[in-house]
Target: PhoX family phosphatase
Amino acid sequence: RPDGGVGNGALTFKPVPPNTLDSLVVPNGYDHAVVIRWGDPVVPGAPEFDVRAQTAAAQARQFGYNNDFVGVLPLDGRRRALLVVNHEYTNEDLMFPGFTSQDALTVEQLRIAMAAHGMSVVELERVDGAGQWRPVTKGRRPYNRRVTALATKFELTGPAAGSAHLRTAADPKGRTVVGTLNNCAGGVTPWGTVLSGEENFNQYFVGGDGAPEADKPKLARYGITTTTRHPSGSRKWERADERFDLAKHPNEANRHGWIVEIDPYDPESRPRKHTALGRFKHEGANVIVAKGGQVVAYMGDDERFDYLYKFVSDKKFMKGNSRVARRHNLTLLESGTLYVARLDETSAGEIDGSGRLPSDGAFNGRGRWIRLVGGNRSYVDGMTAADVLTFTRLAGDRVGATKMDRPEDVEPSLLTGKVYVALTNNTDRGRAGKPAADEANPRNLNKHGQVLELVEDRGDNAGEAFAWSLPIVAGDPTDPSTFFAGYDKTKVSPISCPDNVAFDATGNLWISTDGNALGSNDGLFATAVEGPERGHLKQFLTVPVGAEACGPFITGDNRSVFVAVQHPGELSGASVERPASNWPDGDYAKPGVVVTWRLDGGPIGS
Ligand code: FEO
Ligand code: CA
Ligand code: CA
Ligand code: CA
Model:
């Protein structure tokens, strides 16, 4: 570690100023390149992309749309790696020339959209001399793989698998699901698999008005409309596949909203949906091995006033890369204990919703993990384990979990065990009939969000009590309601709507944003989290017009930063013919993954 302290590596790059440029901007002394973009080949033999002649069969072999999570896993020493990417959703208006409305899409276009969802696994090779990487898609590439909403089969595991909630006409055993929906963030596990969160799955379903009356409150708690057949914003997939019609198949929605695990090193393996980690609008999941050997997954439910969760495995992590260890570790997320967070306040009487710092000088407090399910046993009155795991939001409501400002990515630092939570925003906080500000969510009508740090008691990630604080309350630093861990606010970059978090090899915290409410483009930021530089937040890059910055992923050698540029040009009225962004190729907009490196080959950030 070049600068000694963990989480305290000096970040010496010159920050990128806020801007509205239609390009990706990196600091002086850095370069960047597009690694892969929508339509590029993934599976060898994929047809060349032609926006005017696209088919579902082609899309199912090409890189999907709206890349979000990015993971880079070692393959063969320092020269080869596997890139694993989520494809969260589709912008049909930016994908199909002549688009007029979702209703006017052909069934083949709906199937293209389904094939553009899911995940991609792509072999990468290092470009000589620097931190640049490029995809390898020619020749025999056994790892290259597409997972889609259209055709990929998933196995359900854990206590709710096979339960009555998950059985359908097509799958009477309730154990096999076709497709994954709205895969947002995720994480790389210590045993070399990838976890992916199924987030806003509600938007794919219609016919909630025709679902059984007893199901309606549960559907509604998950954002599925139960009063009209065609809720606004629905994707109309029921025209291509009737399982998206809840009037016909009311349990199909229960088969989405899980954490998915995929083994990129075993291309023949069937990916799994782990019911033991609960069902909600999963942003993602990130794992750390606890002192006692159990693995702990931290997770957020990205909805206004929803909750923060963790899962602790029953079994212990087995070190090493032997077949026996790998096979064992692949079962770790199938049984364990699911908890939801309750945060206590130290300065509750002083919180007025303005974001003013309490007299003790900190937004902080203590908290407890409330047990919901352990193995097959429910700890929630009136709910079975399968009930709690399938309708986890209702369980959180019953036990009095703390209603947060949209928990997005939640990630433990593997160097310190401290956990960082991106709370992106909550413009409903404090409105009539809605919960008011509390110390962890200290601003009403919260446009800019905050970052929460959680420190488990005795450094035990498997424990049930913790301390928390807010190192960053986001916004323009000239806004008195912002906070940057007490650092000189004249020296920090403005930030709004933190979404994804990651760590570099020295333990610095990297934060990407979605929906910058300050009016400039989204981007990627970095700050030390320990020592005198804690809170010295600097903007590392900005993404093009209309895009959010996803990923991010910093390679273990600290030489490459990967970022997913999601939904460039996503502005109302934009189209293939009249793009709002020309990124990355100068014509119409395409989502793509970018790698950034230092021109002199040195470590990123320093
Ligand atoms: Fe898909 Fe919560 O961001
Ligand atoms: Ca306090
Ligand atoms: Ca996100
Ligand atoms: Ca977001």
About this structure: The chain has a mean pLDDT of 97. The chain has one domain: 30-199+257-598. The chain has seven helices and 32 strands. The first strand starts at residue 30 and ends at 37.
